[in-house]
Amino acid sequence: xxxxxxxxxxxxxxxxxxxxxxxxxxxxxxxxxxxxxxxxxxxxxxxxxxxxxxxxxxxxxxxxxxxxxxxxxxxxxxxxxxxxxxxxxxxxxxxxxxxxxxxxxxxxxxxxxxxxxxxxxxxx
Length: 124
Hints:
Layout: H1 5-21, H2 23-29, E1 35-37, H3 39-62, H4 65-83, E2 85-87, H5 91-100, H6 102-123
Antiparallel strand pairs: 1-2
């Protein structure tokens, strides 16, 4: 079931607030808008993974464990490289964004607290 426009706006606002409050946690969750998928990384990673599968099959066919292990390592490296994200923002820009987040954060949190209090009053 798709989200309504209002729910999407709230989700985007919460995500933006998370990035401002705790950028390290947000980047570890992989939803940082400053990071994007790189087509170059995906293509090179897939090619390396395919080369690794080929080496693994050659190692099994030749019954050579060294070639098989090397193929497995190349394949794993290719998958890792394909799933890496490239950073498009510089660190100084991120610090400047954190300095501005003081007022919006407090007003955002205040509005959430007010809405919570209103709901609690409505239940009693």
